[in-house]
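re: ur question from yesterday

yeah so i grabbed the chain u mentioned. its 209 aa long if i counted rite. heres the sequnce exactly as i have it in my notes:
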Amino acid sequence: MTTIAIIGLGNMGKGLAKRLAGKTDLILASRDHAAATAFAATLPAGVVVLDQASAIAGADIVVLALPFEAALEAAGNPALKSKIVVDISNPVKADFSGLAIGHTTSAAEQLQAAAPDAKVVKAFNTIFAGLFDLPAAQTVAVPAFIAGNDEAAVAAVVELAGLAGFAVEKTGGIDAARLLEPLGMLNIRFGYGLGQGTGIAPNWIKLAA
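ran it thru and got these structure tokens back, copy pasting raw so excuse formatting
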């Protein structure tokens, strides 16, 4: 069975953990070990809480459920070599007015440059954390947009997204994150700036063959 480590237990990390617990081997890591242990106790048995380095070393897939700057710092960990690394971040400005980087690069590409021996895959950046709290039956048609250069790594994250209760839209290589991160920012603008709330997500509709 695949072992997945979630690094960071903010709303996104916790939401993903709730969806994955009991379906795969799961390791959690957070700066607040006591809080992580208390959270793990609310999940199905078998979830392990470790420090970040040990969690990375013991996982097949490492989800960096962290803000971009923190994810970039974590990407420097040499234990990520040969690991599948899932980047869920949007590199937003501190005031959420827009993206700090984009169009000619992306958060995912920056992480890949910081961890050149890892297999970075972009996913989940267009999904609000609140969707994880819905019954999985309500999100099975909501796409997780996925981008990555390594086909086997992308396939593994496609499977992860399915386990988490989402559909999948593969978008090509890691450079597609330059498009996905602005899409994530647009979703944030709809949700917060334009008052639509966080029960929304972008989708792609095929109208004709």
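noticed a couple things. The chain has one domain: 3-193. also The CA atoms of residues 14 and 39 lie 8 Å apart.
anyway ttyl
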